[in-house]
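Data availability (excerpt). All sequences and predicted token strings are deposited with the supplementary files. A representative entry, Thiol-disulfide isomerase/thioredoxin, is shown inline so that the format can be inspected without opening the archive.
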Amino acid sequence: MKKQLTTALILLPTILLAQQVNYQIHGRVGTLDAPAKAYLTYRTDLGNTTDSATITQGNFSFSGKLDDPLKANLIISQDGENLRKLRKADAIVLYLENGNIAVEATDSVSHARINAGSLNKANQELTQALLPYTNQLRAATLTYRSLPKEQQNEQAEKEYDKKTDAIEQNQKIVLASFIKTHSNTIISLDALKTFGGYFPEASEVEPLYNKLTADVKSSKSGVEYGKLLQSWKLTALGAKAPVFAQNDKDGNAITLDSFKGKYVLIDFWASWCGPCRRENPHVVKAFEQYKDKNFTILGVSLDSKRDAWIKAVEDDKLNWAQVSDLKYWKNDVAVLYGVRAIPQNFLLDPNGKIIAKNLTGDKLTEKLQQIYQSSAAAKSDSK
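Structure token line:
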């Protein structure tokens, strides 16, 4: 199933060029009145922050101080419903930057005009350029989700994936062009994150990262991205997989080197990750089919609660080596491999070289079938 429907990902703050920020948001949304509310949500190193304001005769306001400019979501609840209960959010992305940020909308804030500083101007330019593809992706997703449950089958999923892949490829052209022509703004770093998707390939994102100015790359968010880029280079196709050791549920250290000589799938997952749990039956199927043919799996859990991890292993019948340091997204192996979204996997050959990545659904069994058929053919030809 397509990544945006089936991938859990880490949400980290987008922190911009270091500077003290005093922001004031003055908003107007038509003639909305109480109990309508506006919510402002953003994330810092300390966690998620949500601020709220009552809308009176269409008007609302927010103000605050931050150590750095950052990305935020402005959400409108027309009936004053609690943010967590909102089923369909009327929202817009903006950047909390120094000075006044004017938000003006006649009905929906998602169509609002924003009058603010350079960051918001650049973001609006990018948003407008991406709008055709955003609409196409939204329409494709709506079409799929509107299908009756019995029709949301494997064939429908493949058609959805094919359609959205094509849209995203066209979107990448626009993103790359924006990054090259706006190399001095942190908005381009966000564009690069979108360009790379859930599973960035260093060979694709590094040339664009190198286009960014020194100021952008030396920002907190830029430095963080640079570190991830180094991890992605270490786990590129054809690279020797970084070695590691981590404990299993009994406290025994399991090393990647101990699997040398076998095809091994390093499978990153977690008990709390719905997409991972839905993927597990496919992984179990591949394991049962090829476990006696020099293939095994090493599961790396991004859990933080031991009992939940062990229960999921048992419930999903994951009868292969499982390790975790219970550090959630800061799992040492996940950090080493630059994992920012799960489920995610790496297939290694008997020499420890990465030969495939992110084999979901039937792609894992298909890849293994291809490997063993090629191996059998090679042996036959050598006779």
